[in-house]
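Priority: low. Protein: Glycosyltransferase family 2 protein. Input follows.
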Amino acid sequence: MGTQPPPAFSFLTTAYKTEDYLRDTIDSVVAQTIPDWELVVVDNGMSDEIAAIVGEYAASDRRIRLVRQENKGYDGGVMAAAAAATGRYFVVLDSDDQVLPGYCETIQRAFDAEPDIAAVGCDAVRFDDTGADLPVGYYRSTNVKQKPDPTKRLRLADLLGGLVPYYTAAVRREAWEAVGGYDRGGQELHESVAIWIRMVRDYDIRVLPQRLARFRIRSDSMSRDPAKVEAFMAELERSFAWAAPEDPEAQAALDKTLRTFRYHVLLRRAQLAFLDRDDKAAAQAAKDAFGQRKTVRAAAIVAAVSLFPGALRRVHPVKQEISGRVARVAGRVVSAVQR
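Result:
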């Protein structure tokens, strides 16, 4: 038998404490409508159960391979998968998320239509831990109001304005290697944002409007941990600011995005201070949030916390609305809220 040609798609999956979800992730890849793929799963923590799960699939499907290593962090797991991959296009796929059956076929058509394209992204369905699809897709949940136009190259201004490709995009191997993939180079940046900032100036990136992936909204998301949320948002802010755009339009988009990040962080601080009965701190944080974005919601929170804190505490649904809304926003800013 001759040597098998490399596949078109290499799915790069790092797995750590996702034993309950990994089978569904693998099944979604196996269900692709075209067979031209491989799946490299990195057991990023030496879990016997993860190794056993992958081993079951690999025993009957040579396209599925296992790499084992001590936990080297999320980016270290993805880079280990990339080092073992042989495909033409690299696709990061978290071990608790999924792709829809037509993912590879649709993305391949986009590459075939325009050979100079370096990466193709898509939208995603959001679903909960019961498996039920949520009505609002990924991009709409992050306040991207217009559908992506696949005929137009992604610009830095688009990226800094919030149209960050959903992380399960397909990137040509050559482009991935040229920009270093998910290697952060020792910088405290968010890898799923930094890679696009590195690529967007020199490479043609397109985003399809179709929902070709499934993004899990986990009940144990880090959005419930205030310290992790603040650290995550700070990392995002550093990642966007790192772009240092010279173009005035891109700079304006960056300024607006950074104000939005700070707005949500400050609203969350107001909510937490309010729940801790620190009304002065809550009012100040709400005022600072209003200074970043002069929204009706921020103004209402400023007024309520400043003037009627006692009444607000007695209205349980209002308190839940403040808490829930801020947690949801913090948890969905980018695709990788739970690695």
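Strands lie at 9-15, 37-44, 64-69, 89-92, 98-99, 119-127, 170-172, 205-216. The two ends are 40 Å apart (CA to CA).
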